[in-house]
Amino acid sequence: ENLSVLTKARQAYQPKLPVSLKNGALSVKINKGAATESVSDQAKIKELFPNTYGLPVVQFEAAEAKAGKALRMGVVLSGGQAPGGHNVIAGIYDGIKSVSKDSVLFGFLGGPSGLENGKYIEIDDAKMDAYRNAGGFDMIQSGRTKLETEEQFNKCIAVANKLDLDAIVIIGGDDSNTNAAVLGEYFQSKGVKTCVCGCPKTIDGDLKNEFIETSFGFDTAVKTYSELIGNIMRDANSAQKYWHFIKLMGRSASHIALEAALQTHPNICLISEEVKAKQMKLKDVIKQVADVVYARAAQGKNFGVALIPEGLLEFIPDVGVLISELSEALAHHEAEVEGLDTAAKVEKLCAWVSAESAEVLKSLPAGIQAQLMLERDSHGNVQVSLIETEKLIIEMVKKELKNRGDFKGKFSALNHFFGYEGRCAAPSNFDADYCYSLGFAASVLALNGMNGYMSSVRNVTKGIENWVAGGLPITMMMNIERRHGADKPVIRKALVELDGPMSAPFKYFAARRDEWAKTESYTYPGPIQYWGPSEVCDITNFTIKLERGA
Ligand code: FBP
């Protein structure tokens, strides 16, 4: 009785699979490509991953069924929620059951810590069926624990051995897939039979490269935000009295903000990567926003909609330097600032950062100072979703307009933050199919003992009959980055490209934004449709279509 009509109806949806997986995991031939290299820092990464470096990319092909024994697998959901996670699990489940009905799937509870501490459930038919095509990660929950110490790895080995696991799939973003690679390497070096595979998840859309066309969840999340933005635009244009400043999730990259702009045509959309490339200081960003507000007011339009990417502050050069110096300082002096109030913390920290950063820190409102000094997450990242950038911009634009002296309009601004409401929406047909296929592909990787791989499904803008499933060695996506005051191997994040092969979404936006600034070109995408004409319910998103030239 707690199931909505939609939830019940969605449970019956049968996600589509690429041709190579349609006849089950045993009917798949593995085609191996050439050896791979990491994207940079090759020597260092090779040294860190002696067993799993240089593996080939693999593609699956439908073939005659071969024999295979029942599989024992574990699955972990890691990091922020993303629509479609349950369908990855469903794909793994159906994949291993296609090998043998005696195959078993364990779901580790609460993220990587569930694996470390041996907290799990066994997933059966009833449990699985209750979560098919459902949003959220609530079947087994998620967590952000980073598996990085030898002690943790050894605990994972004990759990894997106790459950006699053939493979573990870690469903996560760039950091979590890095965890998967590190764990897989460790397992192999210790002669443990369990393979570790990854699966590309994150609404942020920044886990992609030549081979990963998109991370799952992005499509559904942006559609959810775009629906809400469209509704706000219609309200703004009806009342014509408010400016709406909407911060959109995406820890670092601006893919979500850019895609939402392409779907809705706002008056302003800031792109962090552009701000950085143009070396715009905070005051330049404020001037750019104030110019649009000013020009619209001159036309009698005291309303509008502005989209602000969540990661913006880190990309503004002077603020970005401050944030990384703060991270470094906080990592080294944690105990000394514990318990101090904001002013006292600022005082102390100013002595540990550069003079320029100290100046920027002091110029910010106390609320933002406090938010910038919040504890980093276990991966060493600033928790940007807790920083109220949209409020900071409103305040500073207000000041700037006042300082101009000749602003005759009204600037009445409201702030919004769209983040969590998009992360657990019921997956769009695209995400439902993509995730199920990724999960099924992971079962094939497990069946074939492929350690250190990420499951992949490509050609996704070309119609399901052309989707290509396979696996990618995780080490090929790695480079070395500074995290939490130390050099770490991590998967390179894909940011919005301003130029180069993947720049079509930005260029499409850049060619239209001046027109959108002046006018009300607002476009209303409406809610995600699950049934109806294919052009409505199987639609993907502008980003992937423009990037892939579809
Ligand atoms: P992942 O990278 O783990 O997928 O998480 C993405 C994200 O939703 C970001 O957009 C956001 O900054 C962050 O998670 C919020 O984290 P939390 O859920 O811990 O508040």
TrEMBL record:
The residues that hold Mg(2+) are 174
Which cofactors does this protein require? Mg(2+)
Would the keyword DNA-binding be found if you checked this record's keyword annotation?
no
Q: Where in the cell is it found?
A: Cytoplasm
UniProt-annotated site: Important for catalytic activity and substrate specificity, residues? 175
Q: Which residues form the active site?
A: 204 (proton acceptor)
InterPro entries documented for this protein: ATP_PFK, PfpB_PPi_PFK, Phosphofructokinase_dom, PKF_sf
Gene3D superfamilies assigned to the protein according to its UniProt record, in alphabetical order: 3.40.50.450, Phosphofructokinase domain, Phosphofructokinase, domain 3
Binding residue positions for diphosphate: 80
List residues binding substrate: 202-204, 241-242, 249-251, 310, 420-423
Instruction: Give yes or no: UniProt keyword Membrane.
Output: no
Pathway where it operates: Carbohydrate degradation; glycolysis; D-glyceraldehyde 3-phosphate and glycerone phosphate from D-glucose: step 3/4
Pfam families (UniProt xref):
PFK
Phosphofructokinase domain residues are: 72-334
- Report the EC code(s) recorded for this entry: 2.7.1.90
> In this UniProt entry, which residues are annotated as the site Important for catalytic activity?
201
- Record-linked SUPFAM superfamilies: Phosphofructokinase
Name the job this protein performs: Catalyzes the phosphorylation of D-fructose 6-phosphate, the first committing step of glycolysis. Uses inorganic phosphate (PPi) as phosphoryl donor instead of ATP like common ATP-dependent phosphofructokinases (ATP-PFKs), which renders the reaction reversible, and can thus function both in glycolysis and gluconeogenesis. Consistently, PPi-PFK can replace the enzymes of both the forward (ATP-PFK) and reverse (fructose-bisphosphatase (FBPase)) reactions.
HAMAP family, sorted: Phosphofructokinase_II_Long
Q: How does it assemble?
A: Homodimer.
Q: Could you say which protein family the record assigns here?
A: Belongs to the phosphofructokinase type A (PFKA) family. PPi-dependent PFK group II subfamily. Clade 'Long' sub-subfamily.
Question: Could you identify this protein by its name?
Answer: Pyrophosphate--fructose 6-phosphate 1-phosphotransferase
Origin organism is: Fibrobacter succinogenes (strain ATCC 19169 / S85)
The beginning of the lineage is:
Bacteria, Pseudomonadati, Fibrobacterota, Fibrobacteria, Fibrobacterales
